């Protein structure tokens, strides 16, 4: 009898999956339309020009972010340009040759140097060598918090003590008290993987989220702490409560943006991952719909060398999970059936 009931449950679950999975694809772009780390309309032309060895578009974009104090955009663009320069840096070399004291070129150079040092087997030693480049970038514009985000990443990799980290953090928040990139860099330093603990990491994230303005990505900082906690092993019941609260706060933040918006895409990708880990399938499917075509490397790159494939596989798995839990006949279907 027990075996019969188990077989029936499996049969019903399969029937539900077959019936509902195609319908649950509504609002999800097909696989071939999903892009990984797609640049926005301002950055894309700069990357195309850089690929051709021309730095002028990149220079104009970064100068505009500095002059108008668009620190969040500036951080994103500098990071993307530095990652691009890791494999194709002729444009950056030409820029530095033409304008050796340009604050924007200096910032990309510092970010690139830190990226390359992180990948070196002699990471700590190589990072210490990048210190003067970070100092030069910070001197470029005293208002700019982005060099201090670079300095915080540098501090983590070079084993800087807490006192040095706190001094850098103070400089960062003086320039932009709610800068998301600086907060993420600080959160990484305070994580259990580096120089803090899960509790310290969560405490910092929750305080920052409470102080942040509505719509600020800093309100998703506890979600970052939740991700670190989930990677660290099975959470305790108390930790689970904090993880769920972080996800709920991030759902609220995500709802304040429109669908297919590239700005909160990374937060939504991270939220989808956390919701899947918590078995909150329907909420995860909602986030995949809001993500639209904007897959991001993080968090999937932490799990696989092919983040786009992992994103698509997880999205499909969520659809199947939701379909298998959906009743074979919904109320409207039953009403129609009685009418025949």
| Strand order of the biggest β-sheet | 1-2
Principal-axes geometry comes out as globular
Count the E strands: 2
Radius of gyration: 23 Å
Helix and strand element order: HEHHHHHHHHHHHHHHHEHHH
**CATH architecture call of the domain at 53-176:** Alpha Horseshoe
Euclidean distance between termini CA atoms: 34 Å
**The CATH top-level class label of the domain at 53-176:** Mainly Alpha
Description:
By secondary structure, the protein is mostly helical. It has helices at 2-20, 43-51, 56-67, 71-85, 90-98, 103-118, 123-129, 131-140, 146-157, 162-175, 180-190, 198-211, 221-231, 237-255, 265-277, 281-291, 297-300, 307-325, 331-338, and strands at residues 35-36, 294-295. The protein contains 19 helices and 2 strands. The longest helix has 19 residues, at 2-20. It has a domain at 53-176: Serine Threonine Protein Phosphatase 5, Tetratricopeptide repeat (Alpha Horseshoe).
